[in-house]
Design brief:
By secondary structure, the protein is of the alpha+beta class. Helix content is 40%, strand content 25%. The protein has one domain (2-122).
C-alpha cells in the first residue's frame, strides 16, 4: 500500500469531497471496504479496466496530521492479457496518473521526488 501526501496547503477532503464516488467514477463499482491503519478503504473487486485485478483506495486519517491518500493497484500479469486487453494498458496508466493527480494535486514527478525524500528520511545514517 502506498500513501500519498497532498500538495502543501491542501487537504484530501478539499480535493476529493466524495472519495467513494470519485473511485467509482474512475475505476468501477466498489465491492467492499477494507481496514487499513484504522481507516476504511474502498475496494474495487472488478475494475472496469481489464488490466487491473483489484484496486484498494481511500483516505487514511492521522490524528494531528493531514489525511493521506492510500492506494494499492493490483494488476494482471501482462503475459495473461489478450490483444484487446493489452490495448487497455495505456488507459490503465492514464487512469492511475489522473486519479493520483486529481486527488493529491501532485504530478508523477513530484510524487516520485516526495517518495525519494521519505525513503531517504527513513534510512539510517551509517
Amino acid at each position: 500500500m502506498k500513501e500519498y501526501k497532498m500538495r502543501r496547503g491542501e487537504t484530501l477532503d478539499e480535493r476529493v469531497p466524495d472519495m467513494e464516488s470519485y473511485i467509482e467514477d474512475m475505476f468501477g463499482p466498489i465491492t467492499e471496504t477494507m481496514d487499513y491503519k484504522g481507516s476504511d478503504l474502498h475496494v474495487v473487486g472488478e475494475p472496469s479496466n481489464p488490466v487491473f485485478e483489484k484496486i484498494v483506495a481511500g483516505a487514511v486519517k492521522y490524528s494531528g496530521k493531514k489525511d493521506k491518500l492510500a492506494v494499492e493497484f493490483h494488476e494482471r500479469d501482462p503475459t495473461e492479457l489478450g490483444p484487446d486487453e493489452l490495448e487497455a494498458a495505456g488507459d490503465a496508466v492514464d487512469a492511475k496518473n489522473t486519479f493520483l493527480l486529481e486527488a493529491t494535486g501532485r504530478d508523477a514527478k513530484s510524487r516520485r521526488d516526495s517518495l525519494k525524500r521519505s525513503v531517504e528520511d527513513e534510512s539510517p545514517d551509517y
